[in-house]
Amino acid sequence: MSTAVPAPATPAGTLPMVEVRAVHKSFGALEVLRGIDLQVRTGEVAVVLGPSGSGKSTLLRTINHLEKVDSGRISVDGALVGYRRSGDKLYELREREILKQRTHIGFVFQNFNLFPHLTVLDNITEAPLAALRRPRKDVLATARALLDRVGLADKADAYPRQLSGGQQQRVAIARALALEPKLLLFDEPTSALDPELVGEVLAVIKDLARQGTTMIVVTHEIGFAREVADTVVFMDGGRIVEQGPPGQVLDHPRHERTKSFLSKVL
Ligand code: ADP
Ligand code: MG
Question: What are the ABC transporter domain coordinates in residue numbering (predicted)?
Fold first, then answer.
């Protein structure tokens, strides 16, 4: 595959890319996040597991400020998400500033969310043409290189409806990468796919992991977690019940709830 897209320079190390501290979030009377603490270092892959309704999507959405937290703090690459600090005061960022901050965080959804009326190439170039002050020629070249990287170089002019689910999701990944994010968030990227298409999407995500992309991946694919995760995080009832290396959490879970969940998905 193409080498035209540079891999992030920082190897897995000690710098925290994501820091979530004491985050609480309720929807009305329902407390969905009940004190979440999570750190993901630069170059690491965190895989988040947990039953439906445990707060996984909400956690991802707070990290790019699609949901506002009620209390606690989140920072990405050292910058507070959604806020600016001035002295000892915090000010909420304006919509424009929030959008700018969000361009550094790629989000891949379960249902691809491609623009149906745009070609594959236009899906990928739309945001970077608007957000990155780059010559159109360069944006196009990068988009083509990304398509090559996800194995879809020949689909540039196709429309989403002409692609399989797996192909659409690979376009969605290329689109997320086009903004050169510091961090990629995946919310059940293979859950909407027919089983035979899951592998091609996971292969692309594995390739990104090998190149040192920092990612948080919500998935029920335990084999993928075992192979790719640096950290496995198990959530239940709005809390992180247990987290650690895959060999620990998946093979020697300490908590009953983790054991019971794993016995159902394995
Ligand atoms: P998961 O991704 O682990 O399945 P979610 O984070 O989507 O869990 O949801 C956690 C809980 O929060 C669920 O009970 C869900 O119905 C509720 N919830 C999520 N988003 C909203 C919202 N915007 N308004 C009200 N309730 C919500
Ligand atoms: Mg979810």
Answer: 18-262
Tell me how far apart the alpha carbons of residues 245 and 64 are, in angstroms, rounded to a whole number. 25
Distance 181 CA to ligand 2 centre (A): 22
Cα–ligand 1 centroid distance for 199 (angstroms): 27
Tokens representing 203 are 């292969």
Q: Which amino acid, one-letter code, is at 50?
A: G
DSSP state of 61: H
Helix, strand, coil shares of the chain, percent, nearest 5, are: 35, 25, 35
Report the C-alpha gap between 155 and 265 in whole angstroms.
34
| H or E stretch covering 47 | strand 45-49
The Cα–Cα gap between 72 and 20 comes to 8
State whether the beta carbon of 237 lies less than 6 angstroms from ligand 1.
no
Is any ligand 1 atom within 6 A of the Cβ of residue 32? yes
Residue 218: other Cβ atoms inside 10 A: 23
pTM for the structure as a whole: 0.93
Q: Which atom of ligand 1 is nearest to the CA of 28?
A: 25
- Band of pLDDT at residue 13, cut at 50, 70 and 90: low
Residue nearest (by alpha carbon) to ligand 1 atom 5: 55
DSSP assignment letter at 63: H
pLDDT in tens, 53-88: 999 999 999 999 999 999 999 999 999 999 998 898
